[in-house]
Amino acid sequence: MNPTTRQFTLGLILIFLVAFTARLALTHQFVGLNSPPDANANSDQIDYELLAYHMVTGQGYTVVPGPPGSPTASRTPGTSLTLAPIYAAFGRSFIAGRVWFCALSAFTCLLVAWLGAICFNRTVGLLAGIGLAIYPAHAYNAMHFVSETPFGFWLTLALIASIYAHNRRQGGAAIKWTLDALAGTCWAMAIYTRPQLLLAVPIAGALALIAFALRDREHLKRFAVQVVVLSLVLSPWIIRNAVVMGKPTLSTITGYGLWGSHNDLTFNNPAHQGGWVKASLLIDADHPLTGSEVERNDQATRYGLDAIRANADKMPALIAAKLWRLVAPIKDTDNRLVQIAFAAGWLAVAPLLLIGLLLSLKRSPATAGLLLLPILATLASTVIFYGSDRFRDALAPVLLVFAAVGFQQLIRAATRQRIAAPVASIGGQAVQEVQQEDTRAA
After folding, report:
1. Which one of 39, 158, 173, 203 has the fewest beta carbons within 10 angstroms of its own beta carbon?
2. Enclosing domain of residue 21
3. In-domain check, residue 323
């Protein structure tokens, strides 16, 4: 039975309270609400926090103290822009920043419930929302200033806006344009947070062309408008990098990602196969990194491509190792508690996810195709670069929607079985009584 509007609203309130309370408690217990970012937990957050602080204090987009500092494009600005308004309002307050990330993570659980409801039904929405609220990886990421938390927020909002834009068959043109603009903006903000999502654009274009060939023009129209908006939102950053850094680019660390995942260690050492190695372990006389930030990134790109060409015969095995690292249940960490929690969460979600994905593709291929976009983009990024459970966990909002579909199906199957058993028993008893009556009559 689908929940009523009142029940759904109460469910959303409960989801937010559970998610927000759990994240605050975990942060307080294991990190400290007023603690600075810890490089041992995740080194990326050091850069994100410094970039936000330096932007707010007028030192520019740099991790090096100014003025004027050293401009960088090593990190796309989405995560730092998420933290910057809090610093602008409260100063460099770690407690305000951590509470904000916990709240943003909890609010994403509400968006996921909304996404599940509009894609399928309110039951799926509530199951997805509560699932994300207690999903260990999503709660863990809210404890740190990492990209997964803002990425999940923008990605879920982008999917909601895109679905509304496509399904809006009635209403004025202004409403459709507004929904398209909101969707394009949210997709751009998600790309600003994790630039790998840019790979979703050509995938979405291919799906839109297939839909157009099947005489569904709406997909191609919505795609075109949203890509234009997305491009406009991304253009200031790309223009800035062209002027300041000397190259129109989203990021200056893609080369490090390519080289770090394609080198002698990843091709020949099982411990590193499918993963990523720091450049500091790869630099030698034949592979120096010199010059500007852009030049060093270009050099790293060249080294990675050279390694791929030299080891072309080993690429199939390397790609398989990358994909395994993406889906492996054991997180690469020395923290045993984190390992157990992450493994338990993923092992519970994975089979439900597969069931839900297959059902969704069968029942609503257009909706499932849209939800699949970030998953397909992540798979493509894994093949090009490397595999990591972080990439998978960043997709938790989408994964939990599919898992909720699978869980609902299991509930329905179990309910039908419980009802069918007594009915079959009553029917069998009736047949037996009739047979006994026939025997007496004979």
Report:
1. 173
2. 1-146
3. no
The pair of structure tokens assigned to 349 is: 């979600």
Report DSSP state, residue 3: P
Asked, for residue 78, whether it belongs to a domain, the answer is yes
The two three-digit tokens of residue 291, written as one number: 């010059």
CA distance 102 to 24: 6
Residue 9 lies inside a defined structural domain of this protein: yes
Q: Helix or strand or coil: residue 33? A: coil
Tokens of 236: 């200031």
**How does pLDDT run across 408-427, given as a tens digit for each residue?**
999 999 888 776 655 445 44
Give the side-chain half-sphere CA count within 13 A for 406: 19
Q: Give the residue ranges of DSSP H helices in 57-143.
A: 78-90, 94-119, 122-134, 136-141
pTM of the model: 0.92
Which CA distances in Å does 28 have to 16, 21, 35, 106, 144?
Answer: 18, 11, 9, 16, 12
Q: Cβ distance 150 to 79 under 8 Å?
A: yes
Positions of the chain with pLDDT under 70? 66-69, 169-172, 419-442
Q: Is the CB of residue 154 less than 8 Å from the CB of residue 190?
A: yes
Distance CA 259, CA 243 (A): 26
388 is a domain residue:
no
Composition of the chain by helix, strand, coil, percent to 5: 75, 0, 25
Contact 191/76 with Cβ under 8 angstroms? yes
Mapped onto helix, strand or coil, the DSSP state of residue 279 is helix
Torsional sign, CA 238, 239, 242, 243: negative
Q: How many domains would you assign to the chain?
A: 1
The model's pLDDT over 167-191, given as tens digits with 9 standing for 90+, comes to 875 556 778 889 999 999 999 999 9
